[in-house]
Fold each of these.
Amino acid sequence: MTDTARLRPLADRAAAATPPGMARGIRGLSDRAIAWTFISPTIALLLAINIFPLLWTVYLSFTNYRANRPNAPLVWLGGQHYTDILTSPDIWAAMQVTARFVIASITIQTLVGFALAWLIDKKFRGHGVWTTVILLPMMLSPAVVGNFWTFLYQPQIGLFNYMISFVTGVPPSSFQMLGDTTLSPWAIVIVDTWMWTPYVMLICLAGLRSIPDSIYEAAEVDRASKWRQFVSITLPMALPFIMLAVLFRGIENFKMFDMVNLLTGGGPGSTTEVASITLKREAFEKWRTGYASAFAIILFVTVFGLANIYVKALNRVKQR
Amino acid sequence: MKRLLATLGALVAAVLVAAPSGNAYAQGKSLTLCWAAWDPANALVELSKDFTAKSGVNMKFEFVPWPNFADRMLNELNSKGKLCDLMIGDSQWIGGAAENGHYVKLNDFFAREGIKIDDFMPATVAGYASWPKGTPNYWALPAMGDALAWTYRKDWFGRPELQTAFKQKYNRDLAPPKTQAELKDIAEFFQGREIDGKKVYGAAIFTERGSEGITMGVANALYSHGFKYQDPDKPYAMDGFVNSADAVAGLEFYKQLFKCCAPPGYSNSYMQEGLDAFKSGQVALQMNWFAFFPGLHKDPNVGGERIGFFVNPPAKTHGSQLGGQGISVVAYSPNKDEALNYVKWFASAEVQKRWWSLGGYSCHKAVLEDPGFPSSAPFAADFLTAMGEVQDFWAEPSYAQLLLSMQKRVHDYVVADQGTAKQALDMLIQDWTKVFKEDGKI
């Protein structure tokens, strides 16, 4: 019995169960209209929870609105918030901190993640167990990670300082990972790398496993060296996956909030005050809703623009 | 029909018999009181049992840890939430809460119930209850007096070998400091010293970045050096006051104290970290709020005879940072009458005396002016002294913006070594001027 023949009784029963009025109505609709009927609830939901808030945020960004003073008169400020933000040295400092954090963490995570994926891809005894162990940090809650790394970094009792002391001979309480302006940005990069390198590794591993063995076999026949195989086969074929991992991590780290908030709160001073911390302070501590909306729009446009350029580059690499 | 009428009659009679008692009427009612999660809150829970016994109104509590207290509760007020019937909000919230209609104005209620605001210490009325400042418009009843002061390890100070070493170095006795300079000397003396085989440090001071910590700590140093928020004759004129030579000296002093004498890793610490450092025997001196002193005095390891207390010492003048809060009725509460009843009950002299005995800091003159008060606790006399010299941060509706600017500028200077004290204070004036301009104050 063909599929169509098997499904016919079901279709007949559905048609019979449909009230005649509705059946008449549906019969009169075009395919396009039926499609719209089905997707309209989703579209309505999307408009309500995504598009409307976005448009509302854009509107608020041109006003002096403060969520804690709903009764205050709303004044149209034009682009004043945008001008203030783009000329504010504090905002530029926060953007620079964000950029440095994104670049440092992604570079390290990509290198380490790819190296781990490459090692895990080589079948060895117990590699399944090692893969699970490596993936563990990624499965933890950022709140938990932030809190226990705060203890690890404690200069007097923290394990991290004792490990550094053991290796270098420097007294453990002589340096502060979270309280020093030079070390604190690196303290966050270390934690982010510890937590999210497994994620990069997973994506890279998928890339490495997608390379057919026949290509390596052909290279072996041609007597290509291992290095040559790596440079000419492994790297180019895994590159789209690596780029994808960089894209995901880049977007995530650009809006990094939880880890920084838990580890340093943006300090010491403003050394680790990334853009999302500044945004949170403006929106929910200073209650400058209009100003914060403008800043959120600027951040959104920045991430969206950079991601678009990057996706175009990614597509070009995939087409090669 | 007759039977139906008889049943109805019985029901009406039952309702009438049950209704007259106010206590019984209040049975089943409950009030939620919102405050910070700290030692005095536990004392208030104990105290409020008396209110429940008297009124029949059940008391519920919503206590939030200090670092999240302002965020959580201001969100609640701004969203016109009905969670809190009574709010013991921070002193700086009073301007915003009054102007945005979050608190019920209490003037009529005070007049109706015969509650005299003059029965409370003037500094607490100005700090916790009135807005605009200095006017007889009351939005809260002073509930919990508090100020920033110091604790020290009395047992260490009393050790002969340390006394001798200190006298040799500073040519005076090792005793609670009488000036800010002496305070720094003592902190330096203890920094890195070995006591009972353990390395100890000088002073646990406030350096927290996220909420209000470093501002409160720095303010204590600024006030004692002569800092003023504005020209007394010209409101909101800050140049020459916020960045005066005295203010610069105060800020520089705080940085020196942090650099010389704080324990390692103490760059983002507030009251809880200070308590931890002191209770674990890490530090000789601790800056903290009076609210914690009853608990510290009872501590089995560092309390009793091992702990001493002193008021923030002067440099050029006397000054302490005001803490503490007033109790307000939330305007969005569906139980305003019961909440007002609680305030009325709380305002009575008897309840205030019991409040102090349980560990709360009463602001009522019947308690504070009692001849036995200074000797009622080892820190009671210091509390009176401190409350006589307190200053508070801005209580403007935009206090959060003003506070966050100061957090940034002083943390950048004190902890992150950016710029000079003068530059930090100049930038602070720029930030504050911008806020006041946005608010139409200047």
Amino acid sequence: MGDADLLQDLSNPVHSNEDTYSLLQQYLREFSEISGDDIQHLQHRMTASPQFVGKCSDADITFYEMPSDENDRRAFRYAMMNYGEYVIPYTAVSNLVVFKIPFLPED
Amino acid sequence: MNIEYVKTLPRFHDLIYYSKDLDKLTDLPVLGILHFTFHPGVDIADTQQCAAALWRKSLKCVSTVPGFERLLWSPVNDTSTSESSCQQVVVLIQWNGVPGWKMFQLSFGFSMMLGYIAQASNRCIQHTLPLEIPSSCYLELVSFQLPATPSTPQVDRRTEFKVKWDNTFSRPCQAALSEAVLVHAGGEWLERDTDSEDPFFVGLLLWNLGAGGNQSILVNRISPLVENASSTVSVCANQLAFVSPNDASILQPSDSFTGCEISKIRHPAFQKPVQPRYSLHEDLGTPGTSVGKDICHVESMSLARQKPPERIAAGPAGAWYRASTISQHYIPLQARLQFLPHGLIKTGTYMMSFWARRGNQHVQSSFEALQMRLWKLGDCPLLKRGDDLVKEMDWAKILLFIGEYRQGILHRG
């Protein structure tokens, strides 16, 4: 795709609102079909997060399965908070972002 | 630890727990009296609950604190019929002296239970429990508060009340109580955490026959004390459980990590038990070790910074709220990290991940095309791509974060 195509697209942008999300999923589905067996374990999901994507060059990502019980979740949050209290001041980590994944994987 | 400023902390003899002046009182016995009220639904007797395992781990943890002699605990005998009543637990911890009590206040304490604790009380008295306490004992705590009488010095009134308590349960009187099988009746004025705090006298009654023993005999016996008090509160606990130093029977097989994700981590650090290390003194050589940091975790993070990195700190650990900060004055808040409420998502990031064989041109070109399509979608969302750093593998895990998703529109992040 050349620059002209890109500029043309930008001048007439935006698949608006409701269909954006379904288009996104469609693109990923097509990418999966085109790639075939060359890729494995494709997963995609929506996360509820602060705007952290543009603020870090490297990230160490860990997924935790949150317990269903509210009391257990509260205990986890205290543990994670303590972890963050430790990690940020005493290591090279600049930011600890904790976010929830509200939806199940959409394989 | 960089925690919120806690204004009021436990004191002994009107000295804050970390005061160096407490070193002059080293030999005085200290009995910690802790009282926890848990959130609704928490039952530490239910072995199916995480809270039960964490409670046993907490007991084990406290029993490792130097100066620990023994711990007695029991759920409060709740006579209310309300379905919403919350479980309460009374804990007595006998320290062999002030240093042990100080170390406990500095330690991890019951920090693992923070998520389950709705209210806490972290008190102490100068007292020694008898060596022989039958395992079938029940605990009753009776607290007295004296009315304000400006004409009499408070110190005199406190001494007078203590003498009355001791006389009430002196040997001849205790013989009269034998049919109630009173094993121990100790009482002391509760250590105050502030000068303005109202003084409370706490009576410890250990019964060897059912909760509360023979109440009618007791009521008659202490009625003169009650008359002197402006308020009297009695809390009856169930049968006491005991924890001794190095008590291996506290933990149950279900408390181990077997079956959890962490058991899949094969690093040797997870294969051997960790021995806690304690110090009352500042260790300036290792950052954070004296301010609520786990020394083992400090070492682990140091290893992670080596080249090549060897990351073994895999989970939440490393810092804690000292036992002294979990009290009737303060319970740490969960305000530092924001967790968005489930189902009320206004903004977010879309993420995708997949595994691909390294150097596969077909995947590379189709992935680039995908990124271009996504970038043109919505309002040119910021795309951030990351590859797994494990280079020796033929396959790479690739992640792609897609801007900020807001109500159906992808925005630039």
Amino acid sequence: MIRQLRARHLPWAALLSLAVLASACANSGGGQSSGSSGAPITLGASLSLTGSLGSFGVDQRAGYQQAVADANAAGGIKIGGTAHHVKLVILNNQSDPTTAAQQVRDLVLKDGAQAVLGAGTPPITVPQALIAESLKVPYLTTNTPVGAFAAGSKTGYKYSWDMFFSEPEQASGIISAVGRFKTNHKIALFTDNEPDGVVERPLYKKAAAAAGDKVVGDFSFPVGTTDFTSFITKAKASGAQIVVGQMDPPDAVTLWKQMKSLGYAPKIGIIAKAGDFVSWVNALGNLAEGSLLEAVWLPSWNYAGTAHVEATLGKKFDNLGDLGTATAAYSVVQVMLNAFKRAGSTDAAKVNTALGSTNLTTPYGQVQFASNHTATMRFAVAQWQGTKTVPVWPAVSGTHLEFPMAGL
Amino acid sequence: MSATDLVNGFLLGGLYVLVALGLSLAFGVMRLINLAHGALVIGAAYLALWLFTEAGLGAFAALPLVVVAAVLFGYLLQRVLLTHLMMQSFLLGIVGTFGLAIIAETAFAVGFTSDPQSLPSALGTAGFTVFGVTIRAGLLLAFGLAVVLSLALHLSIRRTRAGAMLRAAAAEPRTAQLMGINVPRVFGFTLALAAGLAAVAGVLEGVTASFTPTSDQAILLTGIAVVVLGGVGNVLGTLVAGLGLGLVQAIGIGIFGGGYANLVVYLVFFIALTVRPTGLFARSSL
């Protein structure tokens, strides 16, 4: 019988092996290229297209691809009188820091990337930046709060750069945003143990104290927590009418559902990072109604190129969360290619020096790097109203805000 | 730590039981450590989500269809692939299920993106208060199903002819084959049953929490902890261990805070295994 089984099923074993190989290969992403008079400039990007941070990666990919397409449509990048088209190679790091770091190495050493564009969130981008440092290749990222990025290197970065908002501004912005609503100023704070959660937790408390709010529940937990019952019952008992959090998306969806089932109905709430994308609304449906999100960017700021971004990326993303992330990514490519142009060379050291002297207006805002290799960008908060978003902070006149949150 | 925390922690254990039952059954009967079990759980949640988006079926209306699909898939998977791999070597069976889990994760991500998903259900977000204790309705249902399915499975194994065949195949497959029992078919039915139980767990998981393509890993780890604590192949032991784990987790969070929840659970796990290396309830149902 064993032999019979062996003979009958051997092809299936081979099929399984092939499928496993195919699965592994499927994660290696792809690129796009086009001909030009000069050799193409290769930009590599290791993005979190799947995994817990998949929402970031999909938006960033759209931004990177659009910016590269625009650059090529304009004839490429002129360096020393020669036009170079831009080739973009994207790999999927599956939201895994080790893979993300390794892929930076692969992009440079195997794919010939002359500069690397980063993913999002410190656990992914800091390891990427450290590999770029060791390879002496320019690396530029966004969606990484600048404090956490700067703290990622004890000796200071030489080749790695970040353009995003700062943690204190994020915390004070969120507290200011919830302050626009009439509540009892009692806050329940939910933060996970990822680096940004750890950094933001004291900053939220500091910003709340400065605003005259009181943190009556301070709950910290590991990523992957699936039962929030004890925290929710405490938050409910303390009478907190405001929920502020910094969490991974899957955990936050679970938290929100459990708040509903345990009868906890805060009047206003925001879970930074988790609630920033339309996937939040898709997963929660009506429960997400009225919750707030980090918008990263507002069209009303009206930086140069905003109309183009709205006309292109705006067709893919009709909410401020996803569109803001894509716009930031779009601007990252602009900054990087601008550095190539100003360097007048594809030499890594020259491009890196040019990056350091960037003073460029992008759709995302004015980019100028500080000595710690970060450019602090503006921060905004919006509100989910169905699958659409409206700005909350900074206040934009003519917008109608929903209060209290209808979802919970 | 409130009574609500303890009661809901205990009920959450019901979900752990549902996850672990199929895993325990597969290992107890076939000695197969099914590393794709978590993927079966999540796969069921994704199938229910697909039935909702494509056919408008609610999670519990979709549940019978999802279970049937899982049972058929489990049977075919075992008959077509896994039995063959297991016949070649014990390790090949494990590697095969590991490969299946990777394929499943990729397939889920391609089919549904890696965004967190959740099954919309009024029951999943419903709760009620009894004597000051707020109970999550979804967890209460999971608990009820865990008890009913555990007892039904235990009695089926111990009291029915099919159960006797299962036990014979588990105890000595070659002798059972010589006695006229079609062991590959019994193995097929075993994984079919395990997949069906995983499907119930998957729908409940999707209703009460959220899931992503890679959620299978954490689910598998929890399932393995319950199986080992309860004693491999011991259905009633799995029931007690799952409920106990949920309770211990709630107590751990209540005393030490959320940051130490997993530490407490696995500390208890290792202490229990040190004292009782074969699990707290070593005697198998099989």
